[in-house]
Amino acid sequence: MQLAHLDARLPHLAQALEALARRGGNQEAAQILLEDLSGINVLVARKFTNERTADGLLDAFHLTVGCISLGISQANLPEDGEAQLSFLLHHGAEYVFQMGFRHIKELSGLPYTAFVTDFDNDPHKQQLDIKLLFAQICRADPATAWTGDRIYNHELQDRKSIQTIIDCAKWLRKKHYAGPVRGTDMDAYAVIAIAVIFAILGDGRIVARTGQEELESLIRRVRATRPDIDAGWNELLNQAPPEYQPILRERMDEYRNTIAKKILSKTSAKSVLIEIQKNFAGDEQDIDYQ
Amino acid sequence: MADNTNFPAISRQVTELVLAGSSDHAEEAINDTAEQFGDLAVVAVLDTLEPQVAAMHLSAFDGGKLSLATLLISPKAWAESLAYFAAIWSDDMIEDEPEVLTESLFAHVHGVIFSSDEAERRAALIHEALSTDCGTTAFAVLFSTAIGEIIELANDIHSRGAHSSGQTTSDHDVIPLALEIARSDSDAWDRVLFEIFPDWQPGENQLRARSEEDDDDEVNHDYALARTTHDLLLRLRRQVPSKSVSTPKKGARPSLGEDIFA
């Protein structure tokens, strides 16, 4: 079990400013920095909080500190105020803020869930996402510890892996045996689940979307022919591009002793069907039944 | 005249009180100064106030409430402060409630000029105020509210001289003010008239109020049309001096502005 972090750090901007205070002949740099930071503060207040109230300005102040700190934190600098200060002064506060904000934008461009909808492309929602992430990550009180950069790194990892899962599901949809599956809405987990479950048959087909009839016939055929599950899965893995193989393999390991076993077992077809519908196929199963 | 740098602490105190919105306390500080150091000290303090601060303070006291500041402010300081009187007017206010603005301007100008019985001080106030563009426009705003009477008075003065005129068909509030200007400073009177009637050529054309039906395109050389109160209010608002917000910084790179979010 991981214990709480003990190496709590101040926001990077605060560290850099402390370094500035230790430097001699810092008047001019401090003056320029002060003006830049105040200007950014007002712009942030105008765009995100409220530049007409003290609360709004204070809120924007925290966001400014956080966003600049994020910009510094992602620059691969040594953990040392002097280096951070040099970076800040070299690029200028506004550009460092811009870097931080671009990181936020990049993050918000990655998917938050593996459930893709048309709504994701709505510019209004995208703006809202940026604002939400900005407020969540870039809120730093210069006097207390800040972990926004860690949250950012963690979130970035998460979203990148979700992006790969979505790409994998898209690839499966494209290779669907009955022609590519169209439609913008997609539950990537369900697509992968269906493909892995149908790969049990080992007939070389890739199934990315299904209906109840197909599932019924799958169960019947598997119980009749008792195919080698791993052989079928290896066939799917061999077809898949290398970057998607770990995702598929992980899913296969998960299913080997659960749903795959159940399909082969004597459990009533009806309850297996219900389980697949509920826990695996989800929205990727057509609701029509003839 | 007292040395301007005599009372920096009091000036600073008054400035702070005014900027904090506490005109009553500022006025109290001015009263204390008068009691302690005499009226000249107050004049000195008022002279050292920033004109926009003086304007803020004076505008809190108009016809209804008299203040020592309105009685004692030097004509020059008042003229400078007058430029900032319109600073708080927004376009919406000018559009929606021009009467309120004109009324407050009138109360202020009238209060300052007629608070004194000395003809000399009044003449000096008028002279200083009307030697600035803002002051001239401010008076033009007031006179434009009674344009008919002003034309009558102007013609009267033109034919009979300022000192024998003064009988108009109405007793509008601004007439005594106009008469005061015409009698004490004829150049200033002409400047106000030119501000109201920009096309006026004395002896060539007649002054005339702009009526509702007048077509702007139609140029009539027989008459010099008056600017409307609304136009003059806008002119006055635009003349408020403003400091450039972004003074270029030495050694700093150009600002990204909104692009920090790009």
How would you characterize this protein structure?
The complex is a heterodimer of chains A (about 290) and B (about 260). Chain A is mainly alpha-helical. Chain A folds into 2 domains: about 10-145, no CATH class; about 170-285, no CATH class. Chain A is about 65% helix and about 5% strand. Chain A contains 13 helices and 4 strands. Chain A has helices at about 10-20, 25-50, 55-75, 80-90, 95-110, 125-135, 150-175, 190-200, 210-225, 230-240, 245-255, 260-265, 270-280; strands at about 115, 185, 210, 285. The radius of gyration of chain A is 26 Å and the shape is elongated. Chain B is an all-alpha fold and about 260 residues long. Chain B has a domain at about 85-240. Chain B has helices at about 10-20, 25-35, 40-50, 50-60, 70, 75-80, 90-95, 100-115, 120-130, 135-145, 145-160, 175-185, 185-195, 230-240, and strands at about 205-210, 225. Chain B has a two-stranded parallel sheet with strand order 1-2. The radius of gyration of chain B is 21 Å and the shape is globular. The interface between A and B is medium-sized, with 14 and 12 residues.
Task: Indicate the low-confidence ranges of chain B by residue numbers.
Answer: 1-5, 244-249
Structural class of chain B: mainly alpha
Assembly annotation? heterodimer
Radius of gyration of chain A (CA) equals 26 Å
Whole-number total of structural domains of chain A? 2
> What is the H/E order of chain A?
HHHHHEHHEHEHHHHHE
